[in-house]
Design goal:
With 247 residues, this protein is α/β, with parallel strands linked by helices. It has one domain: Metal-dependent hydrolases (TIM Barrel), CATH 3.20.20. The strands form two sheets. A six-stranded parallel beta sheet has the order 3-5-6-7-8-9. The longest helix is centred in the N-terminal third of the chain and has 18 residues. The two termini are 22 Å apart.
Length: 247
């Protein structure tokens, strides 16, 4: 599969907005990150700053102002890069109220939202969270699913979450590793077998946690994972942006 068949990757999970969480610290760093993402083949990117209920989070108006500034800055040097706004929402009880009141943002104003949990969460808590979010009319995407110990090598439990209405996102960095890397092998298996609906770099800076896309996917595109990568980057992304169900 060639890059042209995808016409640009989509990074659904980043911390590129400056000064709003533990991601980019400045406009200059943000532009470096966006340029690095662009060089990695990314043409659509979601800014998803952390939202943690009960904490001091950047307000929506503030996020919107910074987002619009970054869009203007990027347009001058990366005119074909599409940037969207959302949050990475840490799940706690009653967080749905924050989403409904727009204190926490869905992705690009759709019904899709990026939700994360404690890495020590038990499966039942994640499952009930998915039920709560879907019953409220939203479509939860579980952020960096590979981090949750209760789901490691538990495909049946992952299927239960998907049946309950969840979508799965894994970090591209988690796909990288040699043949002895068990987590990377597990992530590649999930990708190949169609469990993964979205991919993201979860980048926080341009050094230790930088945007990573082409480096992680270029070799996999030539394997049995290739068709799933194409579906993720074309059909799934289009469905999200059009606020439609993913088939």
């Amino acid at each position: 599969m060639s890059m042209n068949s995808i016409a640009g990757y989509t990074d659904i999970h980043t911390h590129i907005l400056p000064g709003v969480d533990d991601g980019s610290s400045s406009v200059e760093e943000t532009m470096q990150m966006l340029t690095a993402a662009y060089d990695e083949g990314v043409r659509t990117i979601f800014a998803t700053p952390h939202y943690i209920p009960g904490r001091r989070n950047a307000g929506v108006e503030h996020l919107q102002e910074i987002y619009e500034r970054i869009c203007r800055e990027a347009e001058t040097v990366l005119p074909d890069l599409n940037i969207y706004l959302g949050n990475e929402i840490y799940y706690k009880d009653n967080v749905v109220n924050d989403i409904k009141s727009r204190r926490a943002l869905t992705l690009a104003g759709t019904d899709y939202l990026l939700v994360e949990f404690s890495t020590r969460s038990e499966f039942n808590k994640i499952f009930q969270a998915v039920r709560s979010v879907t019953e409220a009319g939203y479509r939860p995407i579980i952020a960096h699913m590979e981090r949750y110990g209760c789901l490691y090598k538990k495909e049946r439990l992952i299927e239960d979450l998907m049946d309950a209405g969840a979508y799965i996102q894994i970090n591209t960095e988690s796909l990288v590793g040699n043949f002895l890397d068990r987590q990377a092998a597990f992530c590649r298996k999930l990708l190949e077998e169609g469990y993964v609906s979205f991919l993201g770099s979860d980048c926080h800076d341009n050094s230790l946690r930088k945007p990573l896309m082409r480096q992680a996917l270029s070799k996999l595109e030539k394997t049995s994972c290739g068709e799933q990568i194409r579906k993720i980057m074309t059909e799934n992304v289009a469905a999200l942006l059009e606020n439609k169900w993913i088939r």
